Amino acid sequence: MLSAVMAGTLLAVPALSGAAPAGSASTAKAVTTSAKANTPKPTVVLVHGAFADSSSWNAVTARLERQGYPVIGVANPLRGLADDSAYLSSILDTVPGPVVLVGHSYGGAVITDAATGHSNVKALVYVAAFAPDQGETGLSILGQYPGSRLPPALAVRPYPGGQDAYVNPADFRQVFAADVPAGKARLMAAGQRPVSLAAFAEPSTAPAWKSVPSWFLVAGSDRAIPPAAEQAMAHRAGSHTQVIQGASHAVLVSHPDATAHIIEAAAHATS
């Protein structure tokens, strides 16, 4: 829709110029600039990862909404990569106009699969996230880049049809949110949403980052996904990359300004 609006605007300029007296180039430029200024901003769709929920985006959402962006915080089911991606894909089907699709942690794998086939997704933004290639799993990526403290910190509980993984509350701040105030980290640990263990072992499908421009926020002191893994995935995807030194895996909570800024950069570059 955005490209159609812009195309219509650009086609209208020569007609206006031709009908106006000589020297009206500034008028035509003003018309074009005004039309661009009135173009609706893309919808930002935020996808949380494992051991979190949509409230982890609250501070980022507030900043984006102040800048006029429509925002949808998706409740990621965390049941399995194929099911979660299908759920997100169904949401994307309902969003009119261009979309900037953002994923944190495991949510990066979900946006990687879900965006494929959606021409309205104009940019992908990975925030301390997995950006798998076809056939890769979360476990295989962590196996290539040692240093994650996540696996030994997991507590597993059965549910009908599978097993759920939680981060032990005693380990949560160290592993997930080391730069978040202790009281807030305790609340995050208590309210964490578990992920099905099967989700980390489920292979990714054709990655959208091969055809959609991407941005990557690397958490420099991430203890869940090693920073080396994030940087390697960003390089492979050709992402515009920013590294925040000292940032934990919960960088969207501890650095909401930087997170919002990289999302806005993606939106500006694709508008």
TrEMBL record:
Start and end residues of each AB hydrolase-1 domain: 44-260
GO molecular function, one term: hydrolase activity
UniProt KW keywords: Hydrolase, Signal
Residues spanning the signal sequence: 1-19
Keyword Plastid: no
The keyword Hydrolase is annotated on this UniProt entry: yes
Database matches in InterPro entries: AB_hydrolase_1, AB_hydrolase_fold, Sec-Metab_Biosynth_Hydrolase
SUPFAM superfamilies to which the protein is assigned, alphabetical: alpha/beta-Hydrolases (SSF53474)
PANTHER family from the UniProt entry: AB HYDROLASE-1 DOMAIN-CONTAINING PROTEIN-RELATED, ESTERASE_LIPASE_THIOESTERASE DOMAIN-CONTAINING PROTEIN
Protein name per UniProt: Alpha/beta hydrolase
